[in-house]
Amino acid sequence: MLNRRILRIKAFKVLFSYAENPSMTLGEAESQLETSCEATRSLYLFMLSIIPYVTREAVQRIESAKGKFNPTEEERNPNMKFAENAIAPLLDGDPDLAKLLSKRKLSWEPYDAFIRETYDSMVRKEYFRRYMDDPVRSLAKDASLFTRMFEEEFVDSEALADILEDMSIWWIDDLAYALSVCCDTMRSLAKGNRWDLPPLYRSEMLSPRPAESDKTFVTKLLRTSYSCYDKFFPLVAASTDQWQEDRLFTTDTVLIVMGLSEAKAFPELPLRVTINEYVEISKFYSTPKSRSFVNGLLDRLSKKLIEEGEIVKTGDFV
After folding, report:
1. CB 12 within 8 A of CB 218
2. What's the rounded Cα separation, in Å, for the pair 198 and 209?
3. Helix axes 50-66, 26-48, angle to 10 degrees
4. In sequence order, what DSSP letters do the residues of 275-318 get, joined into one string?
5. Which residues contact 199 (CB under 8 A, 6 or more apart)?
6. pTM score, two decimals?
7. With 90 as the cut, is the pLDDT of residue 76 above it?
8. I need a surface site. Which of 170, 172, 237, 282 has the fewest CB within 10 A?
9. What is the pLDDT of residue 77?
């Protein structure tokens, strides 16, 4: 489930916490990382489970319209395609999914207003109208519809952001990624596969599995970054004479320390790959000028440490 980009981000957030709170032990840092990783899977489960709720909202509205004193012809003979979609029963009747949702206390029951808002938004969209107008019913078409829902209805929703923030401090910034995994699930269900809980790490989904798992990668990255922080931080500070002192405690510094630590921990990983990863992360978590700052300083300090033998790269991976 979690790829190395998001694992780097999670390790970065933990290291940033350590930079702000130097009393944090390595054990506490690793525990925080593990909690953060598992929280993303919980967010995936929560968002996936919205499908039966939105479906029930459609059914309730149809039944309510039929019960009117003088329903219209359309209300007496409604289009039942969405209300009878094949995806909702698959998820609603899955005992493993139900057990996980119950164990993690994940439910949309308190958020009926958001369910109504989501349904209202969907029915106004062109993708929903095309789906309803298509006379062909299939599991694949139902899955495609919910894929569009995950892609279009949630990322910019302030109401959803408020719900997620109240539910878990670990869900900040993880929504888009969790939704992408929901879309992966829709594609799997469209092929007739039964729902199954995705492995926590992407490497566990590959066949054959890589020699080094993603869990091993991110654990080694965090441990190296933690142990090398006091060694690499002064190098960053000494290279930023023109910057105000308080800037040394921003995300840029943590990203550079992590980049140096990754270069040290993984001799076989090309230096340019590492630098590019932290430059990309800086685009989302730091200032507009951070891209060039992180890129330039990480490149210069990495090469300096390679020359000094502190960082060793194998083969042509410099």
Report:
1. no
2. 15
3. 30
4. HHHHHHHHHHHS-TTHHHHHHHHHHHHHHHHHHHTSS---TT--
5. 1, 205
6. 0.92
7. no
8. 172
9. 87
